Amino acid sequence: MGDPAGARRRIGVVGAGAIGTSVGADFLLHGFEVVFVDRDEQILAEAARKVAEGVRFAPMLRPGLGRLSRAELAERVRYVVDLGELAGCEFVVENVTEDWAVKRELYARLDAALPPQVGIGVNTSSISIQRLAAETTRPEWIIGIHFMNPAYATEAVEVMRGANTSDDCLAYVEELVRSLGKQAIVVGDFPGFVSNRISHVFFNEAARLVQEEGVEPTVVDQVFKRCFGHTMGPLETADLIGLDTVVLTLRHLRESTHEDRYEPCGLLQQKVADGEVGRKAGRGFYRY
Predict the structure, then answer these.
(1) What gap in Å lies between CA 179 and CA 181, rounded to an integer?
(2) Three-state secondary-structure class, residue 158
(3) pLDDT in tens, 248-273
(4) CA-to-CA distance for 87 and 110, rounded, in angstroms?
């Protein structure tokens, strides 16, 4: 993988929602070209707005990041609906919804669209890397690369190595992550990995406290921020991720571990049913 010496490196980002645009903005701020792919032009138009906003505000959140003019941004980024446009990318980061059927269908299409030497980074909360790799002809080049949101504000990336992920693929991703000024923290391919295996218990129990004990969301979050030094509380974080994604991840964890603690509490399920899924909807545990 990699472009000829002297050429600007190009990354594909599939799924141009909240996390996908954040990941793409991070690459753009570190000198890469980015090709965004999503299913329709309306999503891509909104993605372009979010990327421009991320590129503008990211240096305020993480001092030291470079700045891009509008002209530089326009030169480096493309928004397309055709997966075939990814053929010139050295690596692809996939960020679509945490739904096995959706991902399974996508990986068959990605495998057909990409040259054999191009790897795919699975930006997933809970779906098995090995399971997705089995849907391709390149299992050695499939790896988990779990960016937190917003990607440009964090200093590390959780990297999940599947059973067939090659040493070359792991070394490539470690170098790619370093090029973003981050550390790759390598973990295994088990349900929820490290971050979500733990964090989603927090999200679920925090929501349960609101539901069963009548605790205000602000109180729950203040305990974590003031007592434990967390930048954000669990309910603020769940709103940022998206409560729909949180519920999907909890269901995957419940199915794969058979542990009742991952059964989404009633309040989380009700908020998702009502469309109150967090920041992207303007309302979750908080109003935005």
Answers:
(1) 5
(2) strand
(3) 999 999 999 999 999 999 999 999 99
(4) 10
